[in-house]
Automatic annotation (TrEMBL):
Keywords linked to the UniProt accession: Acyltransferase, Transferase
Descriptive protein name: Transferase hexapeptide (Six repeat-containing protein)
Superkingdom of this protein's organism: Bacteria
Residue stretches making up the Mannose-1-phosphate guanyltransferase C-terminal domain: 125-209
SUPFAM superfamilies to which the protein is assigned, alphabetical: Trimeric LpxA-like enzymes
Gene3D superfamilies to which the protein is assigned, alphabetical: Hexapeptide repeat proteins
Species annotation: Desulfacinum infernum DSM 9756
Record keyword Signal present: no
Xref: Pfam families: GMPPB_C
Length: 267
């Protein structure tokens, strides 16, 4: 491996709608440095007409057909991540309607939420945040802004996310912290996973590889997790942890910082 960790080492970006965030001639975490500007250029808010910013929504609303529906709909049920969540709107049944349940909080209008996605009661979202299609933001989730969440993702119950990227199918279902991190396609974080992003000393985060040490130049960097990796419950990754594709981290572990190649089992 060369003294650079490119995105292609960790992710298949072929189908990712936001692959332009990543550049092959640089280390993968540099995408985080561009995230705020990328969102400024690509985020198209679709919640402006919802109103009630900074306070819990007083009633459930649906986004569909470029409109905000405050009534005239019926939620029939299904699984958002599987694309089977059905809503009937004025006699038309669809799986492409976005549901914002009463009690969720949108702190500002700089938020875009994709088709067929769900924001459950008690979730709080700050902008700028771009959420893809058929994604679940579950009860009590806290999205702190400068976040890009892909398609078919889960931001789970009492999970906090800040300044991070989820590729398609990434899931953090329960009690997780994801700060200044990138989750690859179909990554799964077990309940209670914490991706620590700040060293106790607060100095620049350095990543040890098989060929030396890379200074990221970043004071905050959580984990970059390759496609298909699974992390067990209550594991903690130290700042500057890079996990290759299809790694397995057993539960209740502290994962050392540095580069862990594809298919590594950490136990």
């Amino acid at each position: 491996m060369a003294q650079i960790i490119p995105a292609s080492e960790l992710f298949d970006l072929t189908r990712f709608a936001h692959r332009a965030l990543f550049r092959e001639d640089e280390n993968v975490w540099e995408a985080l440095s561009r995230l705020k500007d990328y969102l400024a250029d690509h985020l198209n808010s679709n919640v402006t007409a919802v109103g009630s910013f900074g306070a819990p929504l007083p009633k459930t609303v649906v986004l569909w057909d470029e409109k905000v529906w405050f009534d005239g709909f019926e939620i029939l049920g299904g699984d958002a991540c599987k694309g089977t969540l059905r809503v009937r709107i004025r006699g038309t049944e669809t799986t492409e309607a976005t549901i914002l349940y009463a009690g969720c909080v949108l702190m500002d209008p700089h938020i875009q939420i994709g088709r067929g996605s769900v924001v459950e009661p008690g979730a709080l979202i700050k902008g700028p945040t771009l959420i893809g299609s058929h994604t679940e933001v579950r009860q009590g989730a806290y999205i702190r802004g400068t976040c890009l969440i892909g398609d078919r993702c889960v931001v789970g119950h009492t999970t906090e996310v800040k300044s991070s990227i989820f590729l398609d199918g990434a899931k953090a279902g329960h009690f997780a912290y994801i700060g200044d991190s990138i989750l690859g396609n179909d990554v799964n974080l077990g309940a209670g996973t914490k991706l620590a992003n700040l060293k106790i000393k607060g100095d620049s985060i350095r990543i040890r590889t098989g060929e030396g040490v890379l200074d990221t130049g970043r004071r905050k960097l959580g984990a970059v997790i390759g496609d298909g990796t699974e992390i067990g419950c209550n594991a903690v990754t130290n700042p500057g942890t890079i996990l290759g594709r299809r790694c397995l981290v057993c539960p209740v572990l502290s994962v050392r910082a540095g580069y862990h190649p594809a298919r590594t089992v950490i136990r």
